[in-house]
Amino acid sequence: MNNAIRFLALCACFSAPALADTPKLIVQITVDQLRGDLLHKYQNNFVDKRNQKGFKRFLEDGTLYTNAHYRNATTMTAVGHATLATGALPTEHGILSNGWIDRDTGESMYCVADKSTQLLGAEGYSASPANLMASTFSDELYQASNGKAKIYAVSTKDRGAVLTGGHFGKSFWFDKNSGNVVSSSYYFDSLPDYAVNFNASGLKDSFTGTAWTLSQDEARYHNDAANRPFQIPPKGFRSGFPHQMPQAADKAYYGMLAYTPYGDKLTAEFAKLLVKQAEMGKDNVTDYLSVSFSTNDYIGHMFGPNSLEAEDNLINLDRTLADFFSFLDKQVGLENVLIALSADHGVDSIPEYKKSIGFAGFRGNTGKQFDAINQQLAEQFGIEGKLVRKTSMPFLYLDLGLIEQNKLDIHAVQQAVAKHAASLPGVARVFTRKQLMSEDLSYDPIGSKVQRAYVPSRAGDVVLVQAPSSMFEGYAAATHGSPYKYDTHVPVFFTGWKVKSRTISRQVSPEDMAVTLSALMQITYPDKSTGHPLEEMVSLR
To answer: Is 157 marked within a binding site?
Structure first.
């Protein structure tokens, strides 16, 4: 190497931006219902410009863990967000489903509902992380920084924001009746002025009278209209494009926003506002922002993941992310921002659609079957009353008072209920409380996942597992929640900061996300975490 080349190389070293030992801002993105294969499947239609990349910032420039699977059953929104935040299994963080039954009162419980708080910005029930039984990465970051780290979370769904925001963050979500960004008295005495101004800006009403149309020529899509006959379009939507928004900004209009790409755009715009107003990433203390995009889940449920709607929504979200990342680059500098991407769960196709192409598929209303089963159980045990007190799929809750009153053997009742449940269409496996609390099921690929999702203080006395591509309830066209690969497989991707471009195929888990971030920051892991640091990411430090 001659002296001129050495001089140029030396200049390049000094002129390159110095990367800090830790990122100035960590952005954790969760795309609701984003199955692990979908970004690779649709990447040909993603933005691919030098300074304008959305998902391709991960696919081309990031570290990709392509074999990431949840290790628990009950793959639901609340469960996945809690696992991503805490690095723990449901048995540890306590969020076993989106909702459950209170074992003492028999009342229905919603995962983040909190009657001791007040909703700010709209009317309705309020929310907090009171039901979350473990600390989150953001909690540990807050503690390690002596409260100096700025921690925010936003999502269309309350559970998407509350659970990732943790116990010390500030969480916001969207009210579907008014379109407002809202929060809770758990976080603030009153809704902050910047959120009030956002609600009054007119942005939420700017999509009135517009039509959601395909963003590409239809020939460019992987999906087609083959599953359209099996869809259940939400109220206000027709079958097939275009999807026309109402002319007036009313309750119907706000309810429809979440089923269009406009919902994610509003989420991203409020996320930008949070970064700006809090001056995130502007000092030497690492800040944390969680952004959970919910529209993919809403659309996938009603139109199915094999629909043109689901595919076009991800193309639109890609553009929304490209714009958001461009904003972060200007505001903080992407070399200072570590961006993590994952999903709370995957999804299966519409059962009827799968049957139409030669796979198995079943749709039932399993909970209703227990009216007849209760009669059979009463005759079997010679009692009056309903032994199955409540159902909250996949959990069956027994009437413990009735069992005690009639001096029945609780384990015998569990076994009898399990035997009846096992004969129902669409049921593949049944587990009793005694099994899940006393037996070692580590040898059983399905049983071990059910066991990891079992929270004794909240779960039912009998747990059902659906057969592949089977639905216990018909509330949507397609769903998730099973222990099968199509529901457990999600992306675990990183980009920005010092992240290298590489693809890793060994099996990992979304549990690993929180502990990896903790290891990178050299702070305490979340208190009940069960995940393991991803060595390729930790080595960047």
So the answer is: yes
* Residue 183, CA distances (Å) to 266, 438, 442 in order: 15, 41, 41
Residue 383: CB atoms within 10 Å: 16
Q: What is the CATH number of the domain that holds 314?
A: 3.40.720.10
pTM: 0.95
Main-chain phi, psi angles of 232, to 5 degrees: -125, 80
Tell me, what's the pLDDT at 367?
84
Residues labelled as active-site residues: 77
- 340 and 371 in a single domain? The answer is no
Q: Is residue 359 part of a domain?
A: no
Q: 3-state class of 291 per DSSP?
A: strand
Specify which residues 493 forms β-bridges with. Answer: 64, 341
Q: Tell whether 20 is covered by a domain.
A: no
Tens of pLDDT, residues 294-311: 999 999 999 999 999 999
Q: Tell me which of 35-44, 179-188, 359-368, 521-530 is least confident.
A: 359-368
Q: Does the annotation flag 51 for ligand binding?
A: no
What are residue 490's DSSP bridge partners? Answer: 68
Task: Please check whether residues 33 and 140 belong to one and the same domain.
Answer: yes
For the chain, what percent of residues have pLDDT higher than 70? 96
419 annotated among ligand-binding-site residues: no
Residue 239 to residue 62: CA distance in whole angstroms: 37
| 158 is annotated as contributing to ligand binding | yes
Question: What is the dihedral angle through the alpha carbons of 121, 125, 126, 129, rounded to the nearest 10 degrees?
Answer: -150
Average pLDDT over residues 134-158: 98
